[in-house]
Amino acid sequence: MKEALAGIRVLDLSRFVSGPYCAMLLGDMGAEVVKIERPGPGEVARGIEPGVDGQSYYSFVVNRNKESLTLDYRKPAGRELLLELITEADVLVENFRPGVMEAMGCGWDTLKKINPRLVMARISGFGQDGPLANKQCFDSVAQAMSGLMDITGDPHGPPTLTGTTIIDYTSGMYAAMGVLAALNARHASGVGQLVDVSLLDSATSLLLSALPERAHTSTAITRRGNRDRFCAPSNTFKTADQRWVLINCADDPMFERMARAMQQPELMQDPRFVTRAERVRQREAIEALTSAWVAALPASEVVGLLERASVPCALVATLDEVLDNEQLRHRGQITEVTHQSGEKVTMQGVTIHLSDTPLRVRSAIPYVGEHSDQVLSSWLGCSPQRLQTLADEGVISQLTPGRKNVC
Length: 407
Fold this sequence. Notes:
The chain contains 17 helices and 13 strands. By secondary structure, it is an alpha/beta fold. The protein folds into two domains: about 10-205 and about 330-390, Rossmann fold (3-Layer(aba) Sandwich), CATH 3.40.50.10540; about 235-320, formyl-coa transferase, domain 3 (2-Layer Sandwich). A hairpin with a 2-residue loop joins β3 and β4. The protein has a six-stranded parallel β-sheet with strand order 5-2-1-6-7-8, sandwiched between helices. The protein has a three-stranded antiparallel β-sheet with strand order 9-10-11, covered by helices on one side. About 35% of the residues lie in helices and about 15% in strands.
């Protein structure tokens, strides 16, 4: 069968992570995604070391399944060409500050007139309107402003960022979901719409019950390290062989099974631990007992005993162990992509599994301008003469001679 989004054309005007990730997800689903970059080095993220043949791993993992078209839309001819492409597109993805697209003559009010079927995904720090709409924002700023940093980290240490740009990824996913919803609505109405996603909104959505708890109770929502706020024992514990294991004992039946696995069934009768609520109140005591038990055993034995008892637990894996994880490899989440240079690059695979229209990695990150001629010929029917004129005027640039897409 065809891929889920086969026949959908996407223009990706975005940079860094959130927008490119959104467009990549659509590409994984089978859409034809054209990444538009300025002539020369292309998107600035391509140059963040390390990488492969001048293409950074940073950019690599959010720009697969795309074609690259260079276009200097600061020039009148480039802006005209961009508008021509937009008339042929189903989706446009951008993550400039609000007002930038309008200054280019490509605001939503303009674009919906020239292409009423267009779905425009706009990802920004704070949304397209409101008192902070024009404020500069990155993932880390959204983590700080949302309160997510304030509840993350050691209780005796500073507020802490997550280990990756989780808000960029979340915003990209929300934008992709919005695009899919808008495309579905278009089936009935025949009309596209605007998808407005902000990093701050996305970060705030991840706070679970922290906001209502703080708004309606006197509960202080503070940093808890690796503890779960709602159950105990739930933390990381060091083993006899100096590894860390995470244990998350979420309810009373789990605690009964855990007590038996620890060969300490008397804990089930201890009034301090008989219910989840009591264990949370006596967190220090139950964690001390758990810590002592774990410290006497190697990690493999701790994990084995608790897995057999159906208590959620895991070794805190290093990245080397993640690369070797047999479940991830079985699911195709650790995969190899052959770059045009001939080098094989290990990266994450597709995350969504569809039974009839599976997602797949079709190509690695393209070189800057690799598909300029191809896209303009296919989408707009540009003649070789027009392509040469555009190149001579510096509106587009083409791939360096000798490089071929072998993916």
